[in-house]
Amino acid sequence: MHTSDPIIAVEQVTRRFPLDHNAVIAVDNLSLVIDRGEFLAISGPSGSGKSTLLNLIGCIDKPTSGRILIEATDTSRLTPAQTSILRREKIGFVFQTFNLIPVFTAAENVEYPLLVQGLSNSERRRRVSEALDNVGLSARANHRPDLLSGGERQRVAIARAIVHRPAIVLADEPTANLDTRNATQLIDLMRNLNQTLGLTFIFSTHDQRLLEHTPRIVRLTDGRIVSDTISEPSHAEVFAASVS
Fold first, then answer.
1. Residues 23, 62, 154, 187: is their CA dihedral positive or negative?
2. What is the pTM assigned to this prediction?
3. Largest CA distance in the chain
C-alpha cells in the first residue's frame, strides 16, 4: 500500500556507464515508490545496481533517462546549486567505511554538516548533543575515531547523518564492517530512529542479519527489480492508520 504523497518516486530510471565502445547498464528502466517513514532495504548480488540506485536517489549521480522525485521535486530539473541544497537539507548519508575525519572528535564530526548552515554556536551544540544522545554516544563526544570501536564509529556516522534533521537517511552497506554484536545493535538503533523520529531509512545490503529485521526488501538483479516484498506493515502504514 502506498500513500498518495510518496517521499520518493523513481520513474523509469536507467543509468548507463560508458565502457570502451560499449556501455554498462547499472540500473535498467527501474520504477520504485517509497513512502515517508519506510524502513527499506535494497538487496542483491554484487553488481546488481544497489549502490548506483542509492547514489541516484541521493542525487550524487544523475539518471541517463527517467526521473527521480523527492517530496514531489523533480531532481533532474535542479541546478547543481539547488541539488546541493536538497542533499544538505533533505538527505543524510551513512557509508560503510564511516568516512569520519580522524583529527576531529565525535562531536566535531557530527557538527561538521551544520557548519555550512549558518547556525549559531549554541544551536549547533544543542543539535550535536541531541544527535549523539539519540545514538547513545553522549559519553564519547570528545573521543577521536581512533579511540572508538567500529560500532561506535558507525553510530557517530549515523549521528552525523541525522544532525541536520533530514527526511531521508541513505546507508550504503552500513553493517558490512561490523561483527554480529555491533551489527545487531546498529540495526536496532536504525529501526528505533526510524520509528521514533519518523526518518525514512533506505539502505543497500546483502547482510542477512539486517534483512531479517527489514519490513520491506527490494531485490535487484542486473539493475532491475526482481522482487519487492513487505513482511510486516511499514512504519508509514502504521502511522497513517493511527492518525486516520
1. negative
2. 0.88
3. 55
Lookup result for grid cell 534533521: 165
d(CA 41, CA 14): 20
Q: Identify the CA nearest to 175 among candidates 96, 100, 99.
A: 96
Q: Please tell me whether residue 208 adopts helix, strand or coil conformation.
A: helix
User: How far is 70 from 78, CA to CA, in rounded Å?
Assistant: 11
Instruction: Quote the radius of gyration of the chain (alpha carbons, Å).
Output: 18
Q: Are 202 and 40 in contact (CB under 8 A)?
A: yes
Task: Note the pLDDT tens digit of each residue in 135-184.
Answer: 999 999 999 999 999 999 999 999 999 999 999 999 999 988 888 888 88
Which CATH code for domain 36-61+79-243? 3.40.50.300
Secondary structure letter of residue 74 according to DSSP: E
Helix (H, G, I), strand (E, B) or coil at 91: strand
- Alpha carbons 162 and 168: distance in angstroms, whole number: 9
